[in-house]
Design a protein that fits this description.
Layout: H1 8-31, E1 35-39, E2 47-50, H2 52-57, H3 71-74, H4 79-91, E3 93-102, E4 108-119, E5 126-134, H5 136-177
Length: about 180
């Protein structure tokens, strides 16, 4: 046998492992409740693929409807793209970044994003892969909590001022009665 060539059994084993990996990836992509995505690297970051959850999260019927779109098309605040790219460039990954994503109808949703650089051994091709979770309801809830907290603080301040006035009135009344 020539050096560098693989025997047929070894190639069959590799093909079996790859098919198994592909099947597991497809099952994970179809059954997860998180949006999955794969992107090209900077400078013009484009969507290579997504799962159905990510497509629905952004208001699309099929994952294929997102393929080829740039990240500029999907992010409401463009400055965040450089921040995300820097996270990948500097650390190879990031987690828990909150991003305001643009839906198909132009409205926005908040997503918690984690992503990492995906490099293939023996290839110069680099991709970005990750998950996104819709946290819009959580952000709305947090905003409501902040609003109610500020209202409670305002009421507490007003009650404190009313209490001071009542104490002064009580002192004056007691003094007058004496």
């Amino acid at each position: 046998m020539k050096s560098g060539s693989k025997d047929p059994d070894q190639k069959k084993d590799i093909d079996t492992v790859l098919q198994d990996y592909e099947m597991r990836y497809r099952i994970m992509a179809e059954s997860t409740t998180l949006g999955m995505f794969r992107l090209t690297p900077a400078p013009e970051i484009r969507i290579i693929s997504t799962n159905h959850v990510m497509a629905r999260m952004l208001g699309y019927n099929r994952p294929e409807d997102l393929t080829g779109k740039t990240l500029d098309d999907m992010v409401i605040v463009p400055a965040v793209i450089e921040d995300l790219a820097a996270g990948i460039r500097d650390g190879g990954s990031f987690a828990g970044r909150e991003v305001l994503l643009k839906q198909r109808d132009g409205s926005g949703i908040w997503a918690s994003v984690q992503a990492w650089k995906l490099e293939t051994r023996g290839s110069s091709v680099t991709m970005i892969e990750g998950f996104a979770e819709d946290i819009t309801e959580q952000k709305i809830f947090e905003e409501e909590v902040r609003f109610h907290e500020s209202e409670l603080n305002r009421y507490a301040l007003e009650l404190s001022q009313v209490n001071k006035k009542l104490n002064i009135l009580s002192t004056i009344t007691r003094h007058y009665i004496l």
